[in-house]
UniProtKB/TrEMBL annotation:
This is Mannose-6-phosphate isomerase. InterPro entries: Carb_Metab_Reg_Kinase/Isom, Man6P_Isoase-1, Man6P_isomerase_Firm_short, MPI_cupin_dom, PMI_typeI_cat, RmlC-like_jellyroll, RmlC_Cupin_sf. It comes from Anaerobacillus alkalidiazotrophicus. Residues 7-111 form the Phosphomannose isomerase type I catalytic domain. It catalyses: D-mannose 6-phosphate = D-fructose 6-phosphate. Zn(2+) binds at H98, E116, H173. GO terms for biological process: carbohydrate metabolic process.
């Protein structure tokens, strides 16, 4: 039985739109001041999390999934199903869309599709996201893309700290400059770019667009995917349920003093976005702080969390 939390080492990705807030706000050692992505909990081959300490120190998350399924409720998926990221958008991300499982299985060598969701950790005043579009028919959608009517086509929303957005596959979307988000998603690295503001890289090259695929997989018209958070208040803490959907459920643990929680899910993915505290299990006491990411196995049973902490928690 594994009663300890499994702390994981993130992987960092430089991006043309990235910045340095992952270092400034979380203290991470990032590769440059254009670091856009922290792959916090990942078993994807493009960036694997490694266990920091304990019995499985030095092992990859995919190794645990393949060789210690008992930690994860003996689920049947071939690969670890989720990926948690923190994204620092110093500049606008490209306007993009992701395919669903059916399309990806046919076109992307067995890679799954990508449904995701965003929790806004922080943002600059006036920051925006793009989510959805105004075209009512595929013909109009294609026409507005071909004629560059981006301001008319794309739906923009102002955001603020604490906002949550559910972004199913097929949703046209983009994270705007000045937004720092935690993203929970299917474990997939497929992105179809629709528009990239005619940007060029340091060598003067534009980034590749994927218009044919994007047009094929986009939801037209754009459906309303808004979710209604459900808040449960306890003595010393509250738990906000943001979404319970096909691929994941996502929560926010807002702990003022303490929270007692029985892990009945197959496993929990936890990302500490504010504060510090201690996690107590049958095996001992484990300190943690802002920027830590860990797994709680279903073997752990009841956990006691103490401190003033905000944690984004998810499970398949």
């Amino acid at each position: 039985m594994v009663k300890q939390p499994i702390f994981l080492e993130p992987v960092f990705k430089e991006r043309i739109w990235g910045g340095d807030r992952l270092h400034r706000l979380f203290g991470y050692h990032i590769p440059s001041e254009q670091t856009g992505e922290c792959w916090a909990i990942s078993a994807h081959s493009n960036g694997e999390s490694i266990v920091k300490s304990g019995r499985f120190e030095g092992k990859s998350l995919s190794y645990l999934w393949e060789h210690h399924q008992e930690l994860f409720g003996n689920r049947t998926e071939a690969k670890f199903p989720l990926l948690t990221k923190i994204l620092d958008a110093k500049n606008d991300l490209s306007v993009q869309v992701h395919p669903d499982d059916h399309y990806a299985s046919k076109v992307e060598n067995g890679e799954p599709g990508k449904t995701e969701c965003w929790y806004v950790i922080d943002c600059e005043p006036g920051a925006e996201i793009i989510i959805g579009h105004q075209a009512k028919t595929k013909q109009k959608f294609v026409e507005m893309i071909e004629t560059g009517q981006w301001n008319k086509l794309l739906s923009r929303l102002k955001v603020q700290k604490g906002d949550f957005f559910y972004v199913p596959s097929g949703t046209i979307h983009a994270i705007g400059a000045g937004v720092l988000i935690l993203e929970t998603q299917q474990s997939s690295d497929i992105t179809y770019r629709v528009y990239d503001y005619d940007r060029v890289d340091p060598d003067g090259r534009t980034r590749k667009l994927h218009l044919d695929k994007a047009i094929e997989v986009s939801n037209i018209p754009h459906p309303d995917n808004a979710t209604a958070p459900l808040v449960n208040v306890y003595e010393g803490a509250s738990i906000v349920t943001f979404v319970r959907a096909n691929y994941f459920s996502v929560y926010k643990w807002e702990i003022q003093t303490s929270l007692s929680y029985e892990v009945t899910e197959d496993f929990l993915i936890c990302s500490v976005i504010e504060g510090c505290g201690e996690l107590k299990t049958g095996a001992g006491t484990y300190p943690f702080q802002k920027g830590d990411h860990f797994l709680l196995s279903n073997q752990i049973g009841r956990v006691e969390v103490e401190g003033k902490i905000t944690v984004i928690v998810s499970h398949p």
